[in-house]
Amino acid sequence: xxxxxxxxxxxxxxxxxxxxxxxxxxxxxxxxxxxxxxxxxxxxxxxxxxxxxxxxxxxxxxxxxxxxxxxxxxxxxxxxxxxxxxxxxxxxxxxxxxxxxxxxxxxxxxxxxxxxxxxxxxxxxxxxxxxxxxxxxxxxxxxxxxxxxxxxxxxxxxxxxxxxxxxxxxxxxxxxxxxxxxxxxxxxxxxxxxxxxxxxxxxxxxxxxxxxxxxxxxxxxxxxxxxxxxxxxxxx
Length: 236
Prior knowledge:
It is built from six helices and 14 strands. The strands form three sheets. It has a six-stranded mixed sheet. The longest helix is centred in the last third of the chain and has 21 residues. The relative contact order is 0.16.
């Protein structure tokens, strides 16, 4: 099994590097490949089972779009064929139609997801999140200068019970297309959600997932979830 981490030298803000570092500890038998910005992506010429990319600055976002644009069709085929993707924070915006700046100018993105992003660099939006995904609840945080717009009704990742969705006007959070998962939550997202880690491991063919530091990870999740539910009750 091969898992590719894209541009870890800068796509690692908010502790997002621990998304893949924790997954490494849960899956020591897998091969984790860190692809730097000057490298050719492994997915371009090799079979990979999962692709991960984390939070980055807006300037790095634009570099990533330029880097990945020649591989756009390859990425589309991988999404269509069910390859697992995990994009956290603003990494998912790279796959959208475009990113709009405050002055109305646009950065053309990969165009693989029918949404677009709008930036507001003078106002960072912060939010605590509790979201429903299937039969599990996901916890997390948002810290974003940009939000997504468009109709994600049929491609949403989760539904926010506390916090917001892709923007302040919706509770529909993130994007899911086949096994492509994109969420604007940070934190690191994987370490905060042990059941979702097991879900990903099953998608990757692990029949009986076992988590590293399982007791501690679950205890942290339950405590964080309880804190959010208390905030929900206080704000009723």
